[in-house]
Amino acid sequence: MPKLNIAPWDREEIEAHEELGPNNPEARELVNAINKTINEDVLYYYCDCCRDNLDCDETNSVGVGKDLFGKYGFATIDINGKKYFVQIRDSEKFAKVSKQKNLTALRSQEDSLN
Asked: Rounded distance, CA 114 to CA 26, Å?
């Protein structure tokens, strides 16, 4: 069987889906944590098809993302007409990564501003 040639941008999308999709145990755990934390009544839906769990091209209200701190579960919520983007992370992993990146110093600077 011939090997498929996958364009670099497609390869990145496939890798992201494998890492952040429902087949990844860490991603599933993060989505479960968001679902247990956020009241469904405050979830913000970008369109009716999102609310009805239909496939659409709009951004998801709940999902998994990844940044320099690692993976995070997220939800977009609406409270009194104001939209909020809420993240949930594994606190041990976050602490380890933030320490590695010397962000503890940044936190103390932020604390002194508050």
From this structure: 34
Each residue's pLDDT tens digit, 14-47: 666 678 888 889 999 999 999 899 888 888 876 5
Q: Which residues contact 18 (CB under 8 A, 6 or more apart)?
A: 24
Q: Name residues whose C-beta falls within 8 Å of residue 20's C-beta, 6 or more positions apart in sequence.
A: 27, 63, 64, 65, 66, 71
CA angle 15, 18, 1 (to 5 degrees): 70
Angle at which helices 103-113 and 91-100 pack, to 10 degrees?
100
Q: What is the pLDDT of residue 92?
A: 92
